[in-house]
Amino acid sequence: MKKVIFELETLTPLFMRGMDKNQSELRSPSFKGIIRYWWRAACMEDDLDRMKEREKKIFGGLGRAGIFWLKVKEKSKHMVDFEKKPGIRYLFFSMEGRRGNKGVKGIPPQSVFSLEFIFSKDAEEAMIEEALSSLFLAVYLGGFGARARRGGGNLVVKNVNGIENLVVPSFHPDENEKDYPAWLEENIQKALEKIGKGRGENFSYSSLKNASLYLYHMEKWKDWKEPLDWIGRKLQEFRMELKNQENLYANPPVVKRAAFGLPVNIRKRKKNNAEKVCILYKDTGRYASPLILKIHRADKKWYVGVLVMKVDMEGGVVVKTETGKERNVSSVDVEGILKEFVSFLEREKNVIKRKIKLHGGNE
Fold this sequence. Notes:
The chain is globular and about 65 Å long. Helix 1 (28-43) crosses helix 4 and helix 4 packs across helix 5 (180-195). It folds into two domains: 2-195, no CATH class; 212-356, no CATH class. The protein has 363 residues and is an alpha+beta fold. It is built from seven helices and twelve strands.
């Protein structure tokens, strides 16, 4: 059996719950689920039957084992209390204890652990490379655990053993690498070319086709808290601007915050009472945010990654009151609102922006 072992370090608190809902622990199934998500996002296949068949071969499915299993080895059980910086509190709000809830303690930054891929004897080399390339995308485009789309559970690869003779991305930049954005762009391209055949155009699942990635950097950022707090405050400010443009009682309702994911729960002041209003996706109630925030560290520099994925909420958003009354939202300009957010970030003085080209993405 072939083994590939990664040494990983947390850059931001990782919230991954197990038996104890108030404590985080590293769980192999959670890692495999996220790696599988990024494989699917990179696959860019609009023939769902063909995609699901290959996905099942690599990751397994009902009645069928995949080509690998994972083993996680923790080196520390230390937990971190909740961070009090306002932008970070905004991003991690659901992890914070309130109203009698103890909240969730996360695995702190600078925690090191190993993730071991154990491949079956009959695993095809091409599929091994796809699985490992998916891990690259999971680490460098997003995060793991709860609040992964808002900067939670961000990791970096410190070392890897067992990838000799495999055609996969470089999992960590050399010590003398001075252009981290260029290194990142080159290796994202390698991962996407390994997994995605680019045959599809229209997808019923989250895809990196036509996605956009931006890196932001300030020289003054000295640790993970500063860039994460910055992007958290900026997101909060921008969403407040959108809130002031909404009218939930118009016909049809005007809602804009839905562009950042659903549900959105609101307490709306109406005369002398506070009415609970919820903005939902009508089929499932939930819609994953197309905006993914990620903290990067390289050459003692810190970056914020902003990944914008293309989605279509057309005709699927409803406003529901606590009495059960529903009204359809005619449309939400998700692409336009997220472009506005990117422009909003560029107003910040002293911030350096770099657009990272994605295979099949908008240039």
